[in-house]
Specification:
The protein has 91 residues and is mainly alpha-helical. The chain has a single domain, classed as Acyl-CoA Binding Protein. It is built from 3 helices and no strands. Helix 2 packs antiparallel against helix 3. The protein is globular. The termini are far apart.
């Protein structure tokens, strides 16, 4: 993986903490799911069962990485960077 891409990713992650306006909930979920997939990889394990003591899946967004199809880490970083750049230009 390109060290330039990793450096841009780390810089964008730091810059994302400094946004003047909070992105919409949908944008936050997309950014979060892409960030988690880029840093931790595709989601692994089973989905919570019906008897788990947690809010019902219909009431929560679900595991963030499930919103993203499986893809390579460098590709996920690139997509995340483009979303961050779009958010920075919108603010």
């Amino acid at each position: 993986m390109s060290t330039t891409l990793e450096a841009q990713f780390k810089q964008a992650a730091a810059d994302a903490q400094q946004l003047t306006e909070r992105p919409s909930t949908a944008d936050l979920l997309k950014l979060y799911s892409l960030y988690k997939q880029a840093t931790e990889g595709d989601v692994q394990g089973e989905r919570p069962g019906m008897m788990d003591i947690r809010p019902a899946p219909s009431m929560t967004p679900g595991p963030p990485s499930r919103a993203c199809p499986p893809r390579r880490r460098c590709r996920t970083m690139s997509i995340w960077l483009s979303h961050c750049n779009r958010q920075a230009h919108d603010n």
